[in-house]
Structure formats: C-alpha cells, structure tokens
Amino acid sequence: MKLGVNIDHIAVLRQARQINDPIITDALFFCKNAGANMITIHLREDRRHINDKDVKDIISLSPLPVNLECSLNKDIIDIVKTHKPYMATIVPEKREELTTEGGLDLKKFEKEILKTKKILEDEGIIVSLFVDPSNDVIDMCHKLQISNVELHTGKYANIYAMLYGNLGLSSHSIKELELPKEQLKQKLNDTYKAIIASANLSEFYGIKVAAGHGLNYENVKDILKIKNIKELNIGQSIVAKSVFIGLEKAIKKMKKIINETR
Ligand code: PXP
Questions:
Q1: Which residues contact 35 (CB under 8 A, 6 or more apart)?
Q2: Per DSSP, which regions of 13-122 are E strands?
Q3: Contact between 3 and 234 (Cβ < 8 Å)
Q4: Closest listed residue to residue 238, CA positions, set 220, 261, 254
Q5: 3-class state of residue 134 by DSSP
Q6: Which of 39, 183, 195, 222 has a CA that sits 20 to 30 A from residue 158's CA?
Q7: Preceding omega of 22 cis (within 30 degrees of 0)
Q8: Bridge partners of residue 211, in order along the sequence
Q9: Structural contact between residues 131 and 103, judged by C-beta atoms closer than 8 angstroms
Q10: How far is CA 262 from CA 37, 203, 220, 229, in A?
Q11: Based on the number of CB atoms within 10 Å of its own CB, is 35 exposed (0-12), middle (13-18) or buried (19 or more)?
C-alpha cells in the first residue's frame, strides 16, 4: 500500500501570514525520510494554498513522484502540461467549498474529461479521476477507458467522525448526520460496502484504485482491509498530528498503521 502525503495544509499555514514560512519544499525531504511514497498537491483555481511557483518548485525538487490534483479548467491544465507531474488527479472544484466535497460528475463532464485525459496522457502523465464510490461511476470509468481512480472517502470519514469521534460535540457538527447511533452505524456500513464494491469492480476492469479524503489514524484501519485499494492520499490528519509531534513522526505513525495491516 502506497502513501501519498498531501502537503496543501502546510501551504495553508504559510498563507495565514503571507510569508514564506513554513517553506513548502522543506516538507518534501521529511516526507521522503519518513517513508512516504508520493507527494500530493492541489493547485486550486483560487490559489488558496498551493500556488504556481509551488507547483514548479515541488515538481522539480521532489525526490518522490508528485500527484497534482487539478480541475478541468483550461488554464490549470496548461500548468499541469507545462510541469509534467508523475500523475494528475482530476477533481471537481467549487470556489466556495472548504474542501473537495464529492467526486467528479462523469456524465456532465464526459467530453471535457476525455479531452483533458488525452492532453495529459499525450504528455506521459498518468491520469486519475477523483470519483464517488459507486458501481455506476466505475462502469462509466471503464467506458471512458480510465486507468486510475481515487475513491472519495469523505462521506465515510464524516459518518465515522460523527459516530466514533467528537465531531458531533463540536461547533463543526454535521447537522444531517446528527442521527441515532444505530442509523449512523447502518450508514457507515453502507458507505463502506460501496467503497469495497467500487474497489473490486475497478480491479475487475483493470483500473488501479487509490482512496482519499478525511482519512485519519483511526478510520484508515478498515480502509486498509480493502485489498484492491493500492494507494492512499492523506493530508489533513497527518499535518494536524505534525503540529504536535513533527511531520516525519506523523508520517511514520501512519506508515506503521499501514504496514501493520498490509
Ligand atoms: N485526495 C484528494 C483527491 C483530495 O482532494 C484531498 C484533499 O485535498 C485528499 C486526498 C486529502 O484529503 P485530506 O486532507 O482530508 O486527508
């Protein structure tokens, strides 16, 4: 199981003061030393954390392959084409969202996805799609001859946090998930099963499967049991942990959990 560490959140901290501290490229070497397998970054259209110079610096300096998350926006795709990361993960993007809330709408954006996929694959970049865990979506990926997908685990993570974490007691409680425990357990089970089914169907079609969003040191354990998921992209929980114990230790702690299960 490969671990991609999403370092956007380090840029979030830098942006809070608009100064070059912390230096984002310093993270690359801590990630490598800690045993991470990939660096993941998201160049958002509003440049709220990672900016164009970060993309250039990170791709040119990284000792690890870089997975660049990007929307279908033409200007963003031109930047991806210029810097040629190892992989580009196409994600949906809404300006007002706090984070990527769902997977790509493959039906609505079919033409744009196919066009972008061709542009990037012609440059030798592996193209992955960030999708909701659903068999219909994976069927569509097969139809579009997609080689790699990343399953969105955000819904699973939110339900998990409301059921077993303290999210429900905080000011960030998710109103629609303020439900009796038994209902939450059922929802978690349904979501987990959808992730398993999507991973298995992808494997059946020969599509490589990653997963990510909202994964942390607890909820990752059940995801690790899904053998057809070969890669995880994790950011928030690792960077949050690193505030107290340092980035290298925080990554090693995640790697230890991964290696104990896989
Ligand atoms: N994968 C994708 C496609 C994402 O957009 C993100 C968030 O930027 C992540 C993984 C990492 O999510 P988190 O920061 O919640 O671990």
A1: 3, 251, 252, 255
A2: 38-42, 66-70, 87-90
A3: yes
A4: 254
A5: coil
A6: 39
A7: yes
A8: 151, 232
A9: yes
A10: 15, 17, 12, 11
A11: middle
Q: Domains along the chain?
A: 2-154+209-261 (3.20.20.70)
- As a whole number of angstroms, the distance between CA 183 and CA 171 comes to 22
Q: Contact 91/125 with Cβ under 8 angstroms?
A: no
- Sign of the Cα torsion 118, 45, 25, 98 reads negative
Asked if 69 is an active-site residue, the reply is yes
Cβ-based burial of 32 (10 A; exposed 0-12, middle 13-18, buried ≥19):
middle
Question: Nearest residue CA, atom 3 of ligand 1?
Answer: 130
Q: Exactly one of 49, 150, 213, 248 is catalytic; which is it?
A: 213
Q: How far away, in angstroms, is 131 Cα from ligand 1 center? A: 12
| Per-residue pLDDT reduced to its tens digit, 91-139 | 999 767 777 778 999 999 999 999 999 999 999 999 999 999 999 999 9
Q: How far is the centre of ligand 1, averaged over its atoms, from the C-alpha of 101 (Å)?
A: 10
Please say whether the beta carbons of 127 and 139 come within 8 A: no
Token couple for 34: 């800690």
If DSSP codes are grouped into helix, strand and coil, which group holds residue 235?
A: coil
Q: Please name the helix (run of DSSP H) or strand (run of DSSP E) that holds residue 62, with its range, or none.
A: none
pLDDT above 80: residue 160: yes
- In testing the pocket of ligand 1, which one of 6, 10, 31, 128 has its CB within 8 Å of the most ligand atoms? 6
Burial class (CB in 10 A: 0-12, 13-18, 19+), 11: buried
List, in order, residues 6 or more apart from 29 with CB less than 8 Å away: 63
Model confidence band, residue 27 (pLDDT cutoffs 50, 70, 90)? very high
